[in-house]
Design brief:
The complex is a heterotrimer.
Chain A: H1 2-17, H2 23-30, H3 35-42, H4 48-51, H5 60-81, H6 87-111, H7 116-122, H8 141-148, H9 154-161, H10 172-194, H11 196-221, H12 228-234, H13 244-251, H14 255-263, H15 278-296, H16 304-328, H17 335-338
Chain B: H1 2-15, E1 21-26, H2 28-37, E2 50-52, H3 59-71, E3 75-81, H4 82-87, H5 89-94, E4 101-105, H6 118-127
Parallel strand pairs in B: 1-2, 1-3, 3-4
Chain C: H1 13-76, H2 80-86, E1 94-103, E2 106-115, H3 127-133, H4 135-142, H5 150-248, H6 250-257, H7 263-278
Antiparallel strand pairs in C: 1-2
Classes of the chains: A mainly alpha, B alpha/beta, C mainly alpha.
Family (chain A): Belongs to the V-ATPase V0D/AC39 subunit family.
GO cellular component, one term (chain A): proton-transporting V-type ATPase, V0 domain
InterPro entries (chain A): ATPase_csu/dsu_sf, ATPase_V0-cplx_csu/dsu, ATPase_V0-cplx_dsu, V-type_ATPase_csu/dsu, V-type_ATPase_csu/dsu_dom_3
């Protein structure tokens, strides 16, 4: 049943997985002396066709751009194949996160009177939608909602977050995170609706995502003017840490408290190896994500692998960015701090 | 000369009421970092005090920005990434005014080369090679 | 040389006194300027050394700052830069204040970073008011990367502020360097002018005047000698005449008899008196 409808795409994704850089690749890449070397090495991998035509001198951002292109390429292939419902909806949902970022980007740009074309260049290619260009013409958020976003799936999230508040007074970052919260909730709802194995694996990973966001928001809002209640409003209403852990997080005043909250939650084992370094907590979360995602490939007949594939690609982009920046900036000893090998 | 210093001092005194600006010319990452630190400024005509140099930025744009920043009255310090300075080296070397001060800064992916720095070159030249522990 | 490199003056005693005074003034000025030049170049050397040091530490600071940005990008994604770039609006949070520092009478502009996003705890009195006006922008950037990477962004912000601090310091050093460079050049030019042009010229003038005066004296002496000789000759002739007269005429003898013995003395005396008068 699954195979007849979505078997081809699943197989494609599994095929793409072979294109990920492996641990050996990373250890080889670590030996590179210059960004040029990295590029040379990458031409022998799946990125080859994309990097080939790029002119020297190579800049770390160029490598990042190429990796992004790779993701976009893969996803446009998924689009091309025209997945059947409900997989097509699921794939669309994967893009909503980027869409939110793009909308926020366009809106901030519009508020600061930037050029629309210039802004469009900066948008994430996965988060593009038809009416995005008209966002540049929007002068306030209410108008934005009324004119532009009504046709997009994001509009529902807008309504949910800001039913009667004055949109103009909302801080753009809070807007972004509220939208994201609504998006996660909706995604969660969708995956549960799909039922079966998909519901199971997606529940796990989305709960993880929700918890990570909660922890990040907490850490990042310590010492800012964001009030306790506002902070809690941004937390998703599901996840392993919901509701007790989140309530504790909302009360945190410093990093140590956050750590102790995490230790008391289901995530106690992931923090064991982490020290109090703030950088590490992100890395630990990324590592856990990679672990969870790669374990998804162990099971068949579910949509989770598409999500996992996207997340793993994202991690690969981060890895390569980190690697090439470290090499470009002559900080090779830091490479291990950021690279998480996927397989 | 002393007259020039005096006029400089006067200019400084005039602008010091709210402080002068720092201008930046550099690659995206460097400029972003400095903007993050809070030096970014847009005046009433939405003219900025920074220029992001991308691979496709023409030399002409760099020249214009450099000339603009060094002649603006509200700018006291011009930070210029070294690889940009190398592009318009003749302009940078020609520039000798004490205010605004032109500083060459390293950029993350272009290793800093002290021998190309026009000021450092003069310093070295004056101290003499191998002299004074240099 | 003495004819070309001297002032065109009338060689008199008064002028000599004036020129001598000028010479003393020039020498004193030379000493003072020399001291100033020494003070300036002392400072100059200090600044040079500091510039080299600061340049090096600037390299370090910039390195760590740009790496902090890499960390922020790692956690927050590449798109985070757009958030930062687009949030630039209105007034700069960090500005530099310039004031003049005085080294041996040379005004050296110095910069001091200030602004609402104060780099250092004490950023001067004026920043208080700007602090309140830019509070909104400050909090805006505080929430940047709330979902992810916020901590790193704050860290990066701090790192860049530190780098800025060094850069501002370097900027003042560099400006001081350029200003001092020019000041030292002018001072040295003046010192050299005093040492090699003005002083020798005045000295030459003094010796010229002295020489001229000596010449005059010698001429005068010679002239007096001539006069004396002439007078002696005249006196001798007169004596001879008188002698011959006294042989012939007794009447005259009475007249000459009164001073017959001390005649030579009298002439001598008169001569001396004359000389005094003449002089």
């Amino acid at each position: 049943m699954f195979n007849t409808k979505d078997g081809f795409l699943e197989a494609t994704v599994r095929g793409c997985v072979g294109g990920f850089l492996r641990t050996e690749d990373y250890s080889n890449l670590q030996q590179c002396e210059t960004v040029e070397d990295i590029k040379l090495y990458l031409t022998s991998t799946d990125y080859g066709s994309l990097l080939q035509n790029e002119a020297s001198p190579t800049h770390p951002s160029l490598i990042v751009r190429c990796c992004l292109k790779k993701i976009v390429q893969d996803f446009s292939f998924f689009d091309l194949v025209k997945a059947a419902e409900p997989l097509s909806t699921f794939l669309q949902y994967l893009k909503y996160g980027y869409m939110i970022d793009n909308i926020v980007l366009m809106v901030t740009g519009a508020m600061h009177e930037r050029e629309v074309t210039e802004l469009l260049d900066k948008c994430h290619p996965l988060g593009m939608f038809d009416s995005i260009a008209s966002l540049g013409a929007v002068s306030n958020l209410r108008e934005l909602h009324r004119i532009v976003l009504v046709d997009t799936p994001i509009s529902a999230y807008f309504g949910e977050c800001f039913r009667d508040e004055n949109l103009d007074e909302v801080n753009i970052e809070i807007l972004r995170n509220s939208l994201y919260k609504a998006y996660l909730k909706d995604f969660f709802r969708l995956s549960q609706m799909l039922g079966g194995l998909t519901a199971e694996v997606m529940k796990e990973i989305l709960c993880f995502e929700a918890d990570r966001r909660a922890v990040n928001i907490t850490i990042n809002s310590i010492g800012t003017e964001l009030s306790r209640d506002d902070r809690q409003k941004l937390f998703s209403d599901f996840g392993h840490m919901h509701p007790e852990g989140q309530r504790d997080l909302a009360l945190c005043r410093d990093f140590e408290q956050v750590v102790s909250v995490i230790v008391n939650s289901t995530y106690q084992n992931i923090l064991q190896k982490s020290t109090s370094e703030e950088m590490n907590i992100d890395k630990v979360f990324y590592e856990t994500e990679v672990m969870k995602c790669s374990s998804m490939f162990a099971q068949q007949f579910h949509y989770g692998i598409f999500y996992a594939y996207l997340k793993l690609r994202e991690q690969e982009v981060r890895n390569l960015m980190w690697l090439s920046e470290c090499i470009a900036q002559d900080q090779k000893y830091r490479i291990v701090d950021g690279v998480i090998s996927i397989f | 000369m002393s007259a020039a210093t005096a006029s400089n001092a006067a200019a400084v005194a005039a602008s010091s009421s709210e402080g002068s600006l720092l201008a930046v010319i550099g690659d995206e990452d460097t400029v972003t970092g400095f903007l993050l630190a809070g030096i970014g400024n847009l005046d009433a005509r939405r003219k900025s005090n920074f220029l992001i140099v991308k691979p496709d930025t023409s030399r002409r744009e760099m020249e214009d920005a450099f000339k603009d920043f060094t002649t603006r009255e509200d700018v006291a310090v011009v930070l210029i990434a070294q690889f940009v300075a190398n592009e318009i080296r003749y302009l940078v070397n020609e520039y000798a005014e004490p205010i605004p001060a032109v500083l060459e800064i390293p950029s993350p992916d272009h290793p800093y080369d002290p021998s190309a720095d026009s000021i450092l070159n003069r310093v070295k030249h004056l101290l003499g090679a191998g002299n004074d522990g240099l | 040389m003495s004819t070309t490199n001297r002032l065109n003056v009338v060689p008199t005693v008064t002028v000599l006194a004036v020129v001598k005074n000028r010479l003393i003034g020039a020498q004193r000025g030379y000493k003072l300027l020399k001291k100033k030049a020494d003070a300036l170049s002392l400072r100059y050397r200090q600044i040079l050394k500091k510039i080299v040091q600061t340049k090096l530490s600037m390299g370090e600071n910039m390195k760590s700052a740009s790496f902090a940005w890499t960390e922020a990008k790692y956690v927050g994604g590449d798109g985070i830069k757009h958030t930062v770039l687009d949030s630039v609006d209105g007034k700069a949070e960090i500005r530099v204040r310039a004031y003049a520092d005085n080294v041996a009478g040379v005004k050296i502009p110095k910069f001091n970073a200030c602004g609402s996003g104060s780099l250092i705890g004490a950023s001067g009195g004026g920043s208080g008011e700007t602090g309140t006006t830019t509070a909104t922008t400050e909090s805006k950037s505080e929430l940047t990367g709330l979902g992810r990477g916020g901590k790193q962004i704050q860290k990066c912000k701090k790192a860049y502020k530190e780098a800025l601090q060094t850069l501002v310091e370097l900027a003042s050093l560099q400006t001081a360097f350029l200003t001092l460079d020019q000041a030292i050049k002018t001072t040295n030019r003046r010192v050299n002018a005093l040492e090699n042009v003005v002083t020798p010229r005045l000295e030459n003038t003094v010796s010229y005047i002295k020489g001229e005066l000596d010449e005059l004296e010698r001429e005068e002496f010679f002239r007096l000698k001539k006069v004396q000789a002439k007078k002696k000759k005249d006196a001798k002739e007169r004596e001879e005449k008188e002698e011959s007269l006294s042989k012939g005429e007794g009447v005259v003898k009475g007249e000459g008899g009164s001073g017959a013995g001390p005649v030579g003395n009298l002439i001598d005396f008169a001569n001396e008196k004359d000389e005094d008068l003449l002089f």
